[in-house]
Amino acid sequence: MEITTFGAGCFWGVQSSFDRIEGVTRTIVGFMGGNIINPTYEQVCSGKTGHVEVVQIEFDSKIVSYRELLKVFWKIHDPTQINRQGFDIGSQYKSIIFYHNVEQKIDAEESKKHLEDSNFYKKKIVTEIKSCLKFYPAEEYHQKYFKKIGYNK
Q1: DSSP H helices in the chain
Q2: pLDDT tens-digit series, residues 45-61
Q3: Residue 153's pLDDT is what?
Q4: What is the pLDDT of residue 152?
Q5: What are phi and psi of 59, to 5 degrees?
Q6: pLDDT at 110
Q7: Of 150, 144, 152, 149, nearest in space to 30 by CA
Q8: Is 45 known to be catalytic?
Q9: Comparing C-alpha atoms, which of 2, 12, 4, 35 is closest to residue 138?
Q10: 138 and 30 in contact (C-beta within 8 Å)?
Q11: Residue 19 and residue 3: Cα distance in Å, rounded?
Q12: Closest Cα partner for 137 from 54, 49, 59?
C-alpha cells in the first residue's frame, strides 16, 4: 500500500470523492502543515495554526495509480482559488499536494505543469506541492462525515 495526502477544500467532500475510487483502501481526514501539535478542528478553523484540512489516502497502486489519484484531485476542486473553495474561506482550505516520496513529487509537479500548459484555467494555478509533514487525524465525528449524515455527494 502507498499513501498520499491532498488538501482541496473542506475535507468532508474530498474524502467522499476518494472513497469512491476502486483501489483506495482507506481515507482519513485530518490536518497537516501547521505549527502546533495535535490541533483541534476549532483551532485549525481559527486560521492561526497554519494547518490545512487534508485527506490522507491509502491506496493499492496495483489497482489505482498515483497519477490517477492526481487526476481526481485536479477535478474535484478549483486549484486557482487562494485559501478557499467555494463558500469555504480560510487558509485551512488551500489547494495543496503533500508528497510522500520523490516519485510522487515528480508526478505531482508534472501533472500541475500539464494542467497549466493546457490553459484549461484562465487564472493561475495556486496549488502548492510540499513534502509530507506530520499528519494529525481530525476528531472522530469528522471521519466519513458525509456517510454518517446520509449525504451521497
Answers
A1: 11-19, 41-45, 66-75, 102-118, 145-148
A2: 999 999 999 999 999 99
A3: 58
A4: 67
A5: -145, 155
A6: 98
A7: 144
A8: no
A9: 12
A10: yes
A11: 14
A12: 54
Contacts of 25 by beta carbon, 8 Å cutoff, 6+ apart: 1, 58, 59, 60
Kindly state which CATH superfamily the domain 2-148 is placed in: Peptide methionine sulphoxide reductase MsrA (3.30.1060.10)
Which of 5, 7, 8, 10 is an active site residue? 10
Owner of C-alpha cell 499536494: 97
**Of residues 68, 67, 76, 71, the one with CA closest to residue 16:** 76
pTM: 0.94
Residues 145, 12 contacting (CB under 8 angstroms): yes
Per the CB < 8 A criterion, the answer to whether 13 and 54 are in contact is no
Helix axes 102-118, 66-75, angle to 10 degrees: 40
Strands 52-59 and 88-89: unpaired
Provide DSSP, 105-143. Answer: HHHHHHHHHHHHHHT-SSSPP--EEEE---EEEPPGGGT
Q: State which residues of the chain have pLDDT below 70.
A: 152-153
| Domain chopping of the chain, boundaries | 2-148
Q: How far apart (Å, rounded) are the C-alpha atoms in residues 86 and 103? A: 31
